[in-house]
Each structure stands twice: as structure tokens, then as C-alpha cells.
């Protein structure tokens, strides 16, 4: 028999084995590629991991600045025993020293346990929801900066709703100054006292004093902080990569099996971008925070009195003018710079550890 010559009349070669198996190998290849790329930002695995590392980052940052936070609350709420330090040179350190002399180290961290209980869900929900919102909003909003601002604002609103009653208890604990040697009230005792205040018919509403003002403040606070951080880190990875980014091949960038595509920033660059974002966010939202703190401690003086935001605004304006809305802002800067720096730094480094994009 004459063999069939190669050419136009030749039969095509048999298809590869994997093509004759209903695309099973193709599907396996796609699955393998997906695994190599890491968990999708919309997957449950990614959400759970960012929830965990966000909470850890928030608690780490708050612990670093707990003493400053205690003094700031005493200044914001014009505690009678500490007003003489407010607005003076080195007033922050003098107030801190006074607390230390009378109450010891525990006095500087009074209310911090409640702070951690509040911060973990707040920070966890904030970072997790930001990642999810950023991805989903990115499909509908072409402007990257607008997307980051909206995602930051919305995640702030969501996390505030989750944690506000815990923040209320924490502020009352930090504001309280028991007699020297006396044991400060615990969480349960403070919560019970707040619940029994007569300002609202339903006791649970007492835990939401100042909530509306907080919502107004969290929009610029959350939006500006994430917008600024994303912008500065993108500059560090792009225009100033030679100065701020880790060189290619340097640990932890060059890790076996690594799936991340973004280069890591150097430690100083990550800390600086977080600190600057905190300064910008604090400046934009501080008047709202001050009014909220005043509303939160109202029940400590007059349990049956309901004081609105407008009344507090008028009181601050008549007493101190514009400057009154920024009392304690210097302390706020001293607090938010290390807090935001540590928070974003810890979060980004944990994302590297978990190999998340």
C-alpha cells in the first residue's frame, strides 16, 4: 500500500490526550494557575485573613499610644483636675507625670483593656471591608483616588457601627479619676451605670451618645486616611521606588513560592506614609471628635440630661472660639503619627507574611 504523502491531503495529527478528556486537564491547569496567584481579594479566605491581621494591627497601634490617648481624652473633656495643663508648654508630659505619680503605670493605661476589646473588631472590620469595597467600587468608578476615598469612608462607617458602644464605655473609663488608692470601676460596672442613665427612655441608646456626630466625622477621617496612604505608597512603589522600595530580590520580596506582585516598601517609607496619613485625617476630622467626646461624657455629670451636638458647638464657640474645637490637637498629632504608622506598617507586613496582594 502506498503511504499517504505529507501535504494537503494528509490527515491531521491526533489531538493531545488532554483535549480528548472534556477539558479536564485545561480545568486543572486553570485551577493550578489560580492557586499560584493566591486567594482572590473577593474570596472568603482573603476576607478572613484581612479581618484577622487588621484586628492585630489595630491593637498593636493602640497599645503603642495608650498613655497619650488617656491624656488626650482628659483634655478633650476638660476634666477639672487637668484643665490647667491643657494648652501649656509640655502640658501633655506634665499631665502624664501627674497621672503616673498618683496612679502609677496602671493609671496611664486605665480603660485600655476596654480599648483593645473595642479596637480589635473596629480595625478588623475596617481593613477587611476596605479591601472588599475597594475591589467592588473599582468596577464602577474609574478614578482611583475617588474609589479609595469612598472605600475608606464607607469602611469607617461600617466599623464605627460595630464598635461604638464599646468606645462609649472606654471613654467613660478613661475619663474617670477615682480617689488615690481606690480601684477604678470595671467594664461591667461602667456599662451598667451608662445603661441606667435617664437621658433616654431606652437605656441602650445611652451607649450611642454622639453617634451622629461620629458618623459625620468618620467620613473625612476614614476616607482621607486611606486615600493619603494609598497615594503615598503608590508614589513609593512608582516614582520614588529607587529610594523607598525594597530592591528586587531582597527579602521578603524574593521568597520561594511568593505570589505577591507589589514590591514592599522599606520600613521607614511605610512608617512615614502611615504617619502622614494620620496627620491629614486627624486635622480633617478633629472638631467632630471633640464634640463627640463632650457628648459621651455628659452622662457622667448629668445622667438625666440629653445634650445635642448643636448645644455643645455653641458652648465651645462662645467659650473659646475656633481654637476651642482643636483643643488637644497637638496631642492628637503626637498620638496619630505613631498610631497610624504602626497600624499601617503592621497591616502591610502581615499581608506580606500571609502572602496577600
Description:
By secondary structure, the protein is mostly helical. It has a single domain (40-247, 262-353), classed as Mitochondrial carrier domain (Mitochondrial carrier fold). The protein has helices at 24-37, 44-64, 66-76, 91-103, 105-108, 112-138, 144-175, 187-196, 211-237, 241-244, 267-301, 309-320, 329-353. Helix 6 packs antiparallel against helix 7 (144-175) and helix 9 (211-237) packs antiparallel against helix 11. The longest helix is centred in the C-terminal third of the chain and has 35 residues, at 267-301. It is globular, with a radius of gyration of 27 Å. It starts with 23 loop residues before the first helix and ends with a helix. Mean pLDDT is 81; it is low at 1-9 and 17-36.
Question: What are the main properties of this structure?
Answer:
357 residues; mainly alpha; disordered N terminus; transmembrane; mitochondrion inner membrane; Coenzyme A transporter; GDC-like
Amino acid at each position: 500500500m502506498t503511504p499517504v504523502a505529507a501535504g494537503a491531503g494528509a490527515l491531521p495529527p491526533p489531538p493531545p490526550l488532554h483535549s480528548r478528556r472534556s477539558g479536564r486537564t485545561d480545568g486543572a491547569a486553570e485551577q493550578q494557575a489560580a492557586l499560584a496567584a493566591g486567594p482572590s481579594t473577593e474570596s472568603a479566605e482573603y476576607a478572613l485573613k484581612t479581618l484577622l491581621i487588621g484586628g492585630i494591627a489595630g491593637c498593636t497601634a493602640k497599645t503603642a499610644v495608650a498613655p497619650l490617648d488617656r491624656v488626650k481624652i482628659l483634655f478633650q473633656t476638660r476634666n477639672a483636675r487637668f484643665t490647667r495643663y491643657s494648652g501649656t508648654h509640655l502640658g501633655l508630659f506634665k499631665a502624664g507625670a501627674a497621672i503616673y505619680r498618683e496612679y502609677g503605670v496602671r493609671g496611664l493605661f486605665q480603660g485600655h483593656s476596654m480599648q483593645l476589646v473595642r479596637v480589635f473588631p473596629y480595625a478588623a472590620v475596617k481593613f477587611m471591608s476596605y479591601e472588599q469595597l475597594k475591589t467592588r467600587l473599582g468596577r464602577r468608578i474609574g478614578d482611583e483616588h475617588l474609589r479609595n476615598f469612598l472605600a475608606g469612608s464607607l469602611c469607617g462607617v461600617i466599623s464605627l457601627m460595630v464598635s461604638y458602644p464599646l468606645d462609649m464605655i472606654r471613654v467613660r473609663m478613661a475619663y474617670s479619676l477615682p480617689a488615690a488608692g481606690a480601684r477604678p470601676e470595671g467594664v461591667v460596672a461602667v456599662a451598667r451605670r451608662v445603661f441606667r442613665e435617664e437621658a433616654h427612655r431606652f437605656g441602650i441608646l445611652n451607649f450611642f451618645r454622639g453617634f451622629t456626630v461620629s458618623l459625620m466625622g468618620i467620613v473625612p477621617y476614614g476616607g482621607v486616611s486611606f486615600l493619603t496612604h494609598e497615594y503615598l505608597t503608590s508614589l513609593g512603589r512608582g516614582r520614588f521606588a529607587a529610594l523607598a522600595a525594597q530592591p528586587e530580590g531582597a527579602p521578603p520580596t524574593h521568597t520561594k513560592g511568593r505570589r505577591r506582585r507589589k514590591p514592599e516598601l522599606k520600613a521607614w517609607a511605610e512608617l512615614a506614609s502611615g504617619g502622614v496619613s494620620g496627620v491629614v485625617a486627624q486635622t480633617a476630622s478633629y472638631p467632630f471628635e471633640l464634640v463627640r467626646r463632650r457628648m459621651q461624657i455628659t452622662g457622667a455629670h448629668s445622667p438625666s440630661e440629653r445634650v445635642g451636638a448643636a448645644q455643645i458647638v455653641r458652648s465651645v464657640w462662645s467659650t473659646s472660639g475656633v481654637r476651642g474645637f482643636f483643643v488637644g490637637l497637638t496631642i492628637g498629632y503626637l498620638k496619630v503619627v505613631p498610631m497610624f504608622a504602626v497600624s499601617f506598617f503592621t497591616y502591610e507586613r502581615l499581608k506580606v507574611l500571609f502572602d496577600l496582594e
